[in-house]
Specification:
Layout: E1 3-11, E2 14-22, E3 47-48, E4 53-54, E5 62-65, E6 71-74, H1 76-80, E7 89-97, E8 106-114, H2 120-133, E9 135-143, E10 146-155, E11 158-164, H3 186-199, H4 210-223, H5 243-263, H6 286-297, H7 308-328
Parallel strand pairs: 1-7
Antiparallel strand pairs: 1-2, 2-8, 3-4, 5-6, 7-9, 8-11, 9-10, 10-11
Helix pairs in contact: 3-5
């Protein structure tokens, strides 16, 4: 992986040369702006508003607009010479429990790679110290023209750093919660708990971006001139008419889904018996097969498992046989 920043971790008087590497990547599909009439690409050209001409990238620099509209030019040398100890150093300032970090503060994630063989020993020392303490390191560093806050933690055998927003950059949730007083009863909470338990847990590696897959399918169809297949509408109404009914139906649906998923799982093949299987009698009906199977499983209750129709059939067959015997029995001769 290509490093995006080279520097060092400052751990007290210990300095650990490191390379900053992106820990995440985006798989989103990007689009181009086109002219809808002919499909031509839309391009943006950069013009100087004073000279009214297009300028090249080499002619473009940075500038800060003051309150009165005055532009103050800022060069890369100005930014590189800022009087900050964190300009090329990730300076650890504290070690705190991980639950002290509000997830709202978490931003981009990076891996910190050891910068050469000399960094292996202090890198490993910091990693093992973090593991044993069950804490994360809070650090300050400068990247892309500003000083930032970071959190260092151990991921497998590597040290990862999460960029953190400064506390004053996180908005308070004012006006977000419902303003109306609402009472939730125990039965509703029990149903919500039942739904949570039915849905259970999930392995995050099993989840995937269905929107991206559907979009790729549409793009592939349009590229070959085919008509994209219509996708099912998963839109749901946000209006809840009956909360209890919705919860009960959700629990039922979740149980059915779990049952279907369990049924489609492959089962182990049964062990083959050494005995030769008996050839089934074609004269026997399906109901007789069920009865035979049931008799084999529970031989003591085989008599009681006959249905009313089977009893009637047996009785009728016995009567017929009796009548047949009467007709076929030869009469005794008289002397």
């Amino acid at each position: 992986m290509r490093s995006i920043w080279n520097g060092a971790i400052s751990f007290g008087l210990v300095s650990i040369p490191i390379k900053l590497v992106n820990a995440t990547e985006s798989h989103s599909i990007s689009f181009r702006q086109i002219h809808t009439e002919d499909g031509g690409r839309i391009k943006y050209r950069k013009f100087c508003d004073l000279e009214d001409r297009e300028v090249s990238t080499a002619e473009i620099g940075k500038g800060y607009e003051d309150a009165d509209g005055t532009i103050v030019p800022i060069t890369d040398d100005d930014l590189a010479s800022l009087p900050l100890p964190t300009a090329k150093t990730i300076e650890i300032v504290a070690f705190v429990p991980a639950d002290r970090i509000d997830p709202l503060q978490m931003d981009a994630a990076y891996y910190l790679a050891a910068g050469g063989a000399a960094a292996a020993k202090p890198y490993t020392l910091l990693r093992e110290a973090l593991k044993r303490s069950n804490k994360v390191a809070i650090a300050k560093y400068a990247l892309r023209g500003r000083e930032r806050l970071g959190m260092l933690r151990v991921v497998d055998d590597a040290i990862a750093m999460h960029a953190l927003l400064w506390p004053d950059e996180v908005r308070a949730p004012e006006g977000v919660a419902p303003e109306t007083d609402v009472t939730v009863n125990d039965k509703e909470l029990d149903l919500a708990d039942a739904l949570m338990n039915t849905l259970g847990e999930v392995d995050l590696t099993d989840l995937h971006d269905e929107y991206r897959e559907a979009l790729e399918e549409v793009l592939a169809a349009k590229a070959t001139g085919d008509t994209p297949r219509s996708l099912p509408d998963h839109a749901r109404s946000g209006k809840v008419l009956d909360l209890m009914a919705a919860l009960e139906k959700s629990v039922r649906d979740a149980k059915e889904t779990r049952t279907e998923e369990a049924e489609v799982k492959p089962l182990r093949s049964p062990k083959k018996s050494a005995r030769t299987p008996k050839t089934p009698d074609p004269k026997k009906s399906t109901s007789t097969k069920r009865t035979t199977t049931k008799k084999t499983q529970t031989p003591r209750k085989s008599t009681s498992t006959k249905t009313t129709s089977e009893k009637a059939t047996t009785k009728s067959t016995a009567t017929t046989k009796k009548a047949t015997r009467k007709r076929t029995t030869p009469q005794k001769r008289t002397a």
